[in-house]
Design the sequence.
């Protein structure tokens, strides 16, 4: 599927998916483990990536992601369908979990603390060393950005969320999200260029 | 740069983690709104009880019982008492008790006499009532 056809069909596919999702959410709210299991299977990779790109350690990511889904399952009655996808609610839980993680562990990200991740990204691109290194560098740089910049970049380019969905998740206007995206990309490019020159 | 960012989509959780976490999440009990409210209520009750007990403890510590009942001397007052003065007061107390007892007997004798008289009058009246009642019953039956 080309980028153009993807942009045309994505909203249609997404709306069909959301209809099915609503049924699963209703059932999960009534305590259906099967329904929540389906939501879990669908959203786990997305939430995992979101958390993983914000914290450096894989074990910490797994702990946080587990907490996010456990919290979501135990507090399903709190979820209100206000026209936004279920993912917005999950991202909000994940975002708060990451904030709490940094608040309680008093950790500050430093570029040298991110090396453990190399193994995972390498495994995904075993045939292309350049891509591996590029992605590793990109991940490190993302972690140096402001939390809002990280959120917008990950949601927009990694998770393909619309500006409307990002705005709902981050509790901001669509205009503000576009502005953050622009600034975040600019800063990312600048940092990426700087580290390339340094290397 | 945007294309490079999209390549991060390939990051996936390990299958082992996925299966373990899924099982643990789904085996956890789902809390309901009612149970959450009950837990919050229980928490409030616990806090109130702890706060109340602490308040009572502080009240006792700060001689609150002696403020409520002046008969109970406070710890502060007890420590400030002079033992010699207390002995002297105790000696004088004996005489005062005897005097008050005599006064009591004097005044109570008159009161007892009056009370006895009233009781005997009542008894007499009740005897008359019984006689009348018997008389009426006899009339009715005969």
Sequence:
């Amino acid at each position: 599927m080309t980028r153009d056809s993807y942009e045309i069909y994505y909203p249609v596919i997404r709306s069909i998916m959301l209809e099915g999702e609503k049924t699963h959410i209703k059932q999960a709210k009534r305590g259906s483990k099967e329904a929540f299991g389906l939501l879990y299977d669908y959203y786990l990779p997305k939430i995992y990536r979101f958390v993983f790109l914000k914290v450096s350690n894989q074990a910490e990511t797994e702990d946080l992601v587990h907490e996010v889904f456990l919290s979501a399952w135990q507090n399903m009655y709190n979820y209100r369908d206000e026209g936004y996808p279920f993912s917005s609610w999950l991202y909000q839980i994940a975002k708060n979990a990451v904030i709490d993680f940094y608040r309680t562990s008093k950790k500050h990200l430093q570029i040298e603390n991110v090396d453990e991740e190399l193994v995972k990204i390498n495994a995904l691109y075993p045939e292309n060393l350049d891509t591996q290194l590029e992605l590793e560098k990109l991940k490190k740089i993302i972690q140096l950005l402001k939390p809002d910049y990280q959120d917008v970049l990950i949601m927009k380019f990694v998770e393909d969320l619309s500006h409307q969905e990002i705005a709902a998740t981050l509790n901001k206007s669509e205009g503000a999200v576009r502005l953050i995206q622009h600034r975040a990309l600019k800063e990312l490019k600048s940092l990426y260029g700087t580290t390339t020159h340094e290397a | 740069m945007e294309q490079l960012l999209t390549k991060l989509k390939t990051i996936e959780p390990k299958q082992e983690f996925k299966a373990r976490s899924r099982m643990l999440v789904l085996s956890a009990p789902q809390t309901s709104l009612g149970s959450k409210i009950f837990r919050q209520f229980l928490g409030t009750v616990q806090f109130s009880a702890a706060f109340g007990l602490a308040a009572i403890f502080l009240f006792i510590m700060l001689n609150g019982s002696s403020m409520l009942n002046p008969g109970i001397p406070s710890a502060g007052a007890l420590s400030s008492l002079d033992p010699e003065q207390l002995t002297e007061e105790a000696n004088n107390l004996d005489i005062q008790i005897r005097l008050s007892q005599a006064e009591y007997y004097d005044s109570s004798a008159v009161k007892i006499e009056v009370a006895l008289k009233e009781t005997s009058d009542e008894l007499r009246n009740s005897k008359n009532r019984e006689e009348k009642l018997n008389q009426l019953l006899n009339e009715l039956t005969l």
In short: Chain A touches chain B at residues 31, 33, 36-37, 40-41, 44-45, 48-49, 52-53, 62, 65-66, 69-70, 73-77, 120-121, 124-125, 131, 134-135, 138-139, 153-154, 157-159, 185, 188-189, 192 (CB under 8 Å). The longest helix of chain A spans residues 3-29. The mean pLDDT of chain A is 79.
